[in-house]
Amino acid sequence: MADFIATANPGFAPFAMEELRRSFPGIQQSGLAPGETFKVSAGEASEEEWVALLKKKEPIFLRHVFPVGAEEPISDSQEETAAALARFASLVADKLKGKKVAVQVRKSPSSIFPFSSAEGRDAVAPVLRELGAEVTARDADWILSVYAAKRSLYLGLSRPDDNLSDWPGGAVRFRRDEGLVSRAAFKLLEAEKAFNLPLKSFMHALDLGAAPGGWTSVLLERGVKVTAVDPAEMDESLLLHPHLRHLRKNAAEVKFAPGSFDLLVCDMSWDPHHTCRIVSELAPALSAGASGIITLKLMYRKPMQTIQDLLAEYKKHFEIRKVKQLFHNREEVTIWVKRRP
Ligand SMILES: C[S@@+](CC[C@H](N)C(=O)[O-])C[C@H]1O[C@@H](n2cnc3c(N)ncnc32)[C@H](O)[C@@H]1O
């Protein structure tokens, strides 16, 4: 029976658990860090079977998983903890020789684990090198995951792709570039990676709810022409950009010729049903097969129901490609849709 450590955005673990319960009725789940991290016992399924099923029907609110290869009692002694990490590395030694291994260490706030993440990595790195592995931060062949909970230390070895994200706990970090127009830009950068959708492949984007211009600035940097719609002002660093047209209007009032855009992005802070109506009305302005990246604001008490209702509406004009709560999403999820031909 396979066990996994699973992580969702703060406060959203109950929804990830509900999704998993619906998809895999036999599983058992228990909380480790409230609202965020939990343990899943995957019933009869083997680790490989469960990962395959999970990737086929990826839960919206599940950010990260790793399989538990060993569970040890938690200790506040650095010596004992380093020995537990070394024991696990030896257990999986045959997989490590000549391979690139990333070590990812996280702990629950209630854990007595005696290391910081960096110290935990430093404690196990020499052992991995001795076993013939190259210790790396990114582009690893294997990820050695460590999660320190209140009572247990969970350790696992898995392929980056099988964890749903190759970042520790799915916490995607971007370099904080000087002069970033808004933190919202991270959402689009993360969507580009998560949906494997290179933004530079688009010619002309319609950005609804664009101000102050974080998403617009990412698109302009990728060489995409942008028509930005927002009654609010755009950041002054963008105003003279030759590829930007800003319409200071409500998105409900704008009209465009058919097929004007091959990308629509929308991060409008409005009721998600209104947003859906506006995006649907503007669908003819998109070319056949055009993509849309839209944040769905979860302002109602039943997020799963809200998402289900909205997707049913979006499906009238769009094919739904992916629905995911990204690390940079707060009370929202991001969808990638394609305009039906
Ligand atoms: C979260 S901000 C968008 C941030 C933007 N994506 C960025 O990267 O800087 C939401 C924006 O939606 C705009 N908005 C809300 N309702 C709108 C509407 N009906 N039409 C156009 N823009 C709207 C607001 O003025 C606000 O600037």
* CATH architecture verdict of the largest domain: 2-Layer Sandwich
> Outline, from the CA principal axes?
elongated
The bound ligands are:
S-adenosylmethionine
Return the string of H and E elements: EHEEHEEHHEHEEEHEHEEEHEHEE
Q: Mind telling me the C-alpha Rg? A: 22 Å
What number is the mean pLDDT? 95
The number of domains is: 2
Pfam family, one: FtsJ
Domain Ribosomal RNA methyltransferase FtsJ: 181-270
GO molecular function, one term: methyltransferase activity
GO biological process, one term: methylation
Q: Which short descriptors sum up this protein?
A:
2 domains, VC0802-like, 341 residues, seven-stranded mixed sheet, five-stranded mixed sheet, Rossmann fold, alpha/beta, binds S-adenosylmethionine, single chain, 28% strand
Produce a short descriptive summary.
This protein has nine helices and 16 strands.
Topology:
Elements: E1 3-7, H1 13-23, E2 28-33, E3 37-41, H2 47-56, E4 64-67, E5 70-73, H3 78-91, H4 93-96, E6 100-107, H5 117-130, E7 134-135, E8 142-148, E9 152-158, H6 185-194, E10 204-208, H7 214-221, E11 225-229, E12 244-247, E13 261-266, H8 272-281, E14 286-297, H9 303-314, E15 318-324, E16 332-339
Parallel strand pairs: 6-7, 6-8, 10-11, 10-13, 11-12, 13-14
Antiparallel strand pairs: 1-3, 1-4, 2-3, 5-9, 8-9, 14-16, 15-16
S-adenosylmethionine is lined by residues 182, 184-185, 208-215, 229-232, 250-252, 267-270.
GO molecular function, one term: methyltransferase activity
InterPro entries: RNA_MeTrfase_FtsJ_dom, SAM-dependent_MTases_sf
Domain Ribosomal RNA methyltransferase FtsJ: 181-270
